[in-house]
């Protein structure tokens, strides 16, 4: 049986879709299973994540992890985001099976790509 948070984020994903006027967008893919995650964001003047949305082409766990990722990053500053791990994403979903943990890794890869892009744009 799926954890309540997992089931809720899969059936009722938060922040799904393209973010018009986004400050940035990244795309990451799991080369093994083919799951694809697009992450969009807008920054506040204080360099916090003001808005984040996602699109996922993949399994239920990838959809739930993308949804949870957006909830975890909104209103966070960039140093706090550096500490968000795949394990924390999985934990926020109520836990993921070994077979589904790849979804938390995909979400974490998207976050790390976003942070790299933000760091490059800052230079």
Describe it for me?
- This protein is an alpha+beta fold.
- It has a single domain, classed as Sufe protein. Chain: A (Alpha-Beta Complex), CATH 3.90.1010.
- Helix content is 44%, strand content 19%.
- The protein has helices at residues 4-11, 60-73, 78-81, 86-92, 102-122; strands at 24-29, 36-43, 49-57.
- Strand 1 (24-29) and strand 2 form a beta hairpin.
- The model has no long low-confidence stretch (mean pLDDT 93).
How many helical elements? 5
Structural class estimated from helices and strands: alpha+beta
How far is the N terminus from the C terminus?
47 Å
How many domains in all? 1
| Fraction of residues in H or I helices | 40-55%
Find the CATH topology.
Sufe protein. Chain: A
Question: What's the layout of helices and strands?
Answer:
Layout: H1 4-11, E1 24-29, E2 36-43, E3 49-57, H2 60-73, H3 78-81, H4 86-92, H5 102-122
Antiparallel strand pairs: 1-2, 2-3
Helix pairs in contact: 1-2, 2-5, 4-5
Throw out a few tags for this protein:
123 residues; Sufe protein. Chain: A; 19% strand
Task: Write a compact overview of the structure shown.
The chain is an alpha+beta fold.
